[in-house]
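FIELD: query
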Amino acid sequence: MAQSKIFIGNLSFNTSESELTDLFGSIGQVAEVAIPTDRDSGRPRGFAFVTFETQHDAQKALSIDGKEFGGRNIAVKMAEDKSRRR
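FIELD: result
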């Protein structure tokens, strides 16, 4: 399957799923937004994953790497498979 998930780093801890859906929805059709939280505190960890309907839209989203969002310059790159990170 073609990779259609991106990683967004350096997010403000106040960023919501709807804000990310709005931002990336202007680029392409968003299928899912996930903001991981700390297991102990329940607070966001400062990064998120956005899955697009198509690989093409995910590739287009890479164009906003470094863009200011929520007072921070976000990092946008293709998400790595957990199995490939090891």
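FIELD: remark
The chain has a mean pLDDT of 93.
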